[in-house]
Input
Amino acid sequence: SDTNDGSSQFKKDATFHLDNPLAGVNGLANSLASHNYPGLFMLRSGTVVTLTQQANSAAYNAGATWLISPR
Output
């Protein structure tokens, strides 16, 4: 579901965990892996972010790697 309906399914679908970066140096970046859909990662392409099946390419790995900065 795209809308938070308060269900346990939505909570599972909206949960991600930090994974080792698919590109870059470990400790400086992470990839955001879906908790409920193994093998799917948050992928950015320009200004669009999608949940996409992992692909073995440099472009995918770069788009699915995020710099995590503390506030």
